[in-house]
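User: Sequence recovery, please. Input:
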């Protein structure tokens, strides 16, 4: 069995052998030793524990496949941990760039807190009310902001493509998008002092 007192290189090779043999205990140990660090990274980067579990599972599958096909070899004492972390980080980055994430984050503005007075209203009415607030706020934005946000969120154009079309650099367009989103949030979500 695996012992953490043996030399690290031998330990890594033992883990690889155990993965090849589908040893459940080694998978549990990899989870215990590596999941907290990966979960922390994902939570710090707009994620949650549920997403972290999904990403970690994908990273474990990638490690398992790489070991089974002998595309992965331990080249240093922390190769497995580094591999899992890198795979998880890359998969999380891919997810953040995906249309699924953009769709979730662009519709999150619609889902604001419901006041105690609205508790008796059914979910459909709440959704329609929040959607109307978001649409009204969007209509109040300046023309430039509406065009920029529409191109990015609805037409799924990259900031780089938008920057080329408007003759600005990508950083300027990113900053402008951020300011437009801040303005939209301010219009759509009334501050407590305004209630």
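Assistant: Recovered sequence (195 residues):
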């Amino acid at each position: 069995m695996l012992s953490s007192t043996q030399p690290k290189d031998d330990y890594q090779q033992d883990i690889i052998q155990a993965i090849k043999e589908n040893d459940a205990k080694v998978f549990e140990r990899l989870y215990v030793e590596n999941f907290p660090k990966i979960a922390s990274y994902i939570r710090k980067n707009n994620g949650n524990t549920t997403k972290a579990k999904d990403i970690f599972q994908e990273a474990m599958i990638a490690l398992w496949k790489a070991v089974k096909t002998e595309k992965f070899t331990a080249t240093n004492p922390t190769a497995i941990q580094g591999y899992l972390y890198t795979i998880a980080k890359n998969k999380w980055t891919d997810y953040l760039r995906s249309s699924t994430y953009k769709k979730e984050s662009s519709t999150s503005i619609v889902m604001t807190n419901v006041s105690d007075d609205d508790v008796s209203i059914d979910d459909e009415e709440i959704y329609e009310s929040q959607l109307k607030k978001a649409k009204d706020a969007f209509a109040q934005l300046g023309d430039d902001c509406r065009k920029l946000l529409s191109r990015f969120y609805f037409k799924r154009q990259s900031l780089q493509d938008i920057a080329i079309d408007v003759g600005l650099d990508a950083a300027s367009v990113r900053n402008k998008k951020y300011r437009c989103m801040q303005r939209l949030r301010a219009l759509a979500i009334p501050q407590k002092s305004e209630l």
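The chain has nine helices and no strands.
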